[in-house]
Amino acid sequence: MTREIHLNAFDMFCPGHIQQGMWTHPRDQSHCVNDLQYWTNYARKLEQGLFDGIFFADVVGVYDVYGSSPDAAVRGGVQIPANDPTIVIPAMAAVTKNLGFGVTCNLTYEQPFLFARRMSTLDHMTGGRIGWNIVTGYLDSAARAIGLQGQVAHDDRYDLADEYMSLVYKLWEGSWDDDAVIVDRQRAIFADPTKVRVIHHEGPQYKVDAMHLCSPSPQRTPVLYQAGSSPRGREFAATHAECVFVNGQKKEDVKTITSDIKARAVTKGRSADDVKLFLGATVITGRTNAEAQEKFEEYRKYVSSEAALVHAAASLGIDFAKYDIDEPIETGKSQAIVSNVEIMNKAAGPKWTRRKLLEQMVLGSRQQPWVGSGEEISNMLIGWSEETGIAGFNLSRTVTPDSMEDVITHVIPLLQERGVYKTSYANGTYREKLFGHARLPATHSAAQYRSNVVAK
């Protein structure tokens, strides 16, 4: 029997996220991202559709690889302007009761002590509905923004991330006992100091000697997302991640990644079921196949090829402006998203060109859209889930709010009829809804830092 399919809305606090150019569509409302009501209305709509969560992407640099300039990104609204997604989450949580919030935060540029406090605060403010997408960055512009010359080497960033994770685990899991806060008005004792401890950490990158500033939040550690599919990324995911985001490829490739990460997790003493994989997908649907195809053809009129190349250039680490339309492109050694280069090599061949790349980006990104009636899309979601072992999908927006409303109207009811999508939310925190427990299990690497087992 097919397991329950999970759905996240995949979005970003900016006008142009994945499908570049869609903000120019006359019905698209993504230019309203600075309006708080845009996000609270969105949250209500997703909860009506019983979405598991909204997954916020984020970058802290500008896309300036294409043409060695940020001009095309600024002109095309390619993930700029981009606001801080953590700010809007409490407002969305205030108008919902069950929707989860996965937020991307780049640990390379986040001081771990302050970051740990922000995540605990968000977990409190959402009632235990916060998740963290762990990223190490891929933009040189982001590195320069904080005073570095450029990106740390790809695998070295993961080495830094391993230490970062051990430090925030100590703060989240080891600094406060669950029963430290007693609020004893008679004795004027708010918290028992014998149950709150200072964390001592001294490593290659970080030194911290402090207690965590927040009392234990409902989940303590947020639900942990990660999106690396390179060999080093998979090893990191197997150690830390609960949910892994993979990009669309062939089914056999997704199955291989899914099986590999789960197998690696088992070697680390975890259960294969402790890790759920989510596939990125773009859905265009309607009452009939003809209606969906008509929408697709309409949307294609608003695609920006330049903006699509700007986004691809940054994530692949290649300046496509240097190449003629049919000139073979040399990938070389990139410090950007290594797995993206591997995917493109498989899709277009090792000697691909701008023309081949643009042929892949029919709707303004490398993510090929799935177009069909609600029945056809529901069959595709079930098929991918059954054949690859993924747990769910991160659905990118095209025209907003149309794209998610169409999924809610035409796809979700059919998934429910087939018994593969919930008809109501389970109780509890974000982690409880996904895994059945509020805190990380004892088999997770964070567990070693609990209570008095706080290692240096």
TrEMBL record:
FMN binds at residues 58, 104, 154, 158, 229-230. InterPro entries: Diverse_substr_monoxygenases, Luciferase-like_dom, Luciferase-like_sf, NTA_MOA. The keyword Flavoprotein applies. Signal peptide: none annotated. GO terms for molecular function: monooxygenase activity; oxidoreductase activity, acting on paired donors, with incorporation or reduction of molecular oxygen. Residues 10-325 form the Luciferase-like domain. SUPFAM superfamilies: Bacterial luciferase-like. The keyword Metal-binding does not apply. Keywords: Flavoprotein, FMN, Monooxygenase, Oxidoreductase. Pfam families: Bac_luciferase. Belongs to the NtaA/SnaA/DszA monooxygenase family. This is LLM class flavin-dependent oxidoreductase. It comes from Agrobacterium leguminum.
